[in-house]
Amino acid sequence: MDSPHPMPQPHRDEAPPAGSSASHSEQVAALYREHHDALLALLQCRLSSRSDAQEIAQEVYVKLLTMNDLNQIESPRAFLFRMAINQSMDYLRKRVVRANAPADPDEEETHATPLPERHLWASQQWKRVQAALRELPAKSSQAFVMHVIEGRAFSTIAAEMKLSERMVRYHVSNAIAHCRERCFATEAR
Description:
- The chain is built from 8 helices and no strands.
- By secondary structure, the protein is mostly helical.
- Helix 5 crosses helix 8.
- It starts with about 25 loop residues before the first helix and ends with a helix.
């Protein structure tokens, strides 16, 4: 018998449990219905573009649909938002690279700057990076050099520095951000 005041359903933040009958696509559809507006708002703030936010959100949902099993994910909502943030960071990095890349340089333009001037510029850039690295804590600087300059894997660095791989990634990303800030700030002057 239906009561005149239906019992409120608890807000489901998660996909149905492993034993549930909901299909994979139904789980993704439920995530979409429950979180799409908030996800778009987050992405739009990060990307400053509604169309870019919609594109990234679509990519995230497509990736979720291609995953094998959402039931193994402890918090599908958190996973959805983390995927979206990661995708937006990748998108922003690509946008910066594209904006800074020369537009199809002609063969003649490629060698327009004499080699000594290019060497001088590279030398100056390297000095700026070294100066920026000296401003960082030793672990951040060491992790940056080992990963970016020496090309070592995060797992190798983690074992050598006796840190977790996550901490190594943290130190490297902080060092990269600091170096970018210092090098670009110097060039803007």
